[in-house]
Design a protein that fits this description.
transmembrane; about 70% helix; membrane; Tim23-like; transmembrane helix; mainly alpha; globular
Length: about 160
């Protein structure tokens, strides 16, 4: 096999990983749309029952209570829940990506833990406000702090590994 042919294929794969899926005319819009589509597609591919079984065996609490497998209602419930969660993950990724890009541009090209911390906090707070109808102030603050901590740790650890 010709090694140059194999190298060309790998170069194409690497260029696809770096390229945006959309060209909307502005890098910020491209990045938000790209992150939204990638995160929502990835989330839609996960099985709803991938998590560990409940530790309390007497608890009959299900993540999808309408899924029983005996009718088309279960398929409808699966589609609605998967679509809703995909949209939430897509919005979170788009919001986070857009904020980090905006912070980088506003701070003169600096991409450090500060951008990640602010983006994580704002994304965490926004997600807390959109996931439940009765969200308390404490839940929003907790989600903001959690988002900031996770994104800051990820940014700091990415430079180590």
């Amino acid at each position: 096999m010709d090694k140059s042919g194999g190298k060309k294929v790998m170069d194409e794969i690497r260029s696809f990983e770096k390229a945006n899926l959309f060209d909307l005319g502005h890098p910020l819009l491209n990045r938000i749309a790209d992150s939204f589509v990638k995160a929502s597609c990835i989330r839609a591919g996960f099985d709803a029952n991938m998590g560990p079984p409940s530790e309390n065996a007497s608890s009959k609490e299900h993540r999808f209570p309408n899924l029983r497998g005996e009718s088309s209602k279960s398929l409808d419930a699966l589609v609605k829940n998967t679509g809703k969660e995909s949209l939430q993950w897509g919005l979170a990724a788009g919001l986070y990506s857009g904020i980090t890009y905006g912070m980088k541009e506003a701070r003169g090209g600096a991409h450090d833990w500060v951008n990640s911390s602010v983006a994580g906090a704002l994304t965490g707070a926004a997600m807390a406000m959109t996931t439940s109808e009765s969200t308390s102030h404490d839940q929003v603050v907790q989600s903001a702090l959690t988002g900031a901590a996770i994104s800051t740790a990820a940014n700091l650890l990415s430079s180590v590994f």
